[in-house]
Design a protein that fits this description.
37% helix; mainly alpha; 8 helices; 5% strand; single chain; Alkaline Phosphatase, subunit A
Length: 156
């Protein structure tokens, strides 16, 4: 009896592991930048949400300072309205204001779609029809440059 209960419990608890959807990036081996792109400098874009412009120096964030020193860093950012994470991060990589990209908030109702976009809803975040414009990583790939985006709005 206990053995049967144990097997049933083990099976029940393992169900979520077998129901996962594969959302990992598919890697294509031996991809390279085109020869023209290999001569250009790399761009690493880091955004630390809520990280004030002076925190790196104030709190001596050694590795961030080392990344910024030989390259370029923004002295400030003039946020778009509304000054929320999703609209502003998407504006950074598309150059579009929220009114033009369609991403007008972290959570909002779209009367044309009769749907609500919720930033914590995986279905919304991975549905590209919510995002207008072309993000930087898509433009790079179109120019035969390798690109990667990790945990950035619109990259899922």
């Amino acid at each position: 009896m206990k053995y049967g209960l144990f097997l049933y419990l083990l099976l029940f608890l393992s169900i979520p592991a077998f129901c996962q959807v594969d959302t990992t990036q598919q890697i294509i081996l031996n991809r390279k930048n085109s020869s023209a792109q290999q001569k250009k400098p790399y761009v690493i874009l880091i955004s630390a949400d809520g990280f004030r412009y002076d925190y790196a120096k104030k709190y001596n964030t050694t590795h961030l300072l080392e990344l910024a020193n030989p390259g370029v860093k923004a002295d400030y950012m003039l946020p778009s309205y509304p000054s929320l994470t999703f609209p502003n991060h998407y504006a950074i990589v598309t150059g579009l204001t929220p009114a033009h990209s369609g991403l007008v908030g972290n959570n909002f109702y779209d009367p044309a779609r009769k749907e609500t976009y919720i930033s914590k809803n995986h279905r919304n975040v991975t549905d590209s029809t919510w995002y207008g414009g072309t993000p930087l990583w898509v433009l790079a790939e179109r120019q035969q440059m390798l690109s990667a985006a990790n945990y950035w709005v619109g990259s899922d």
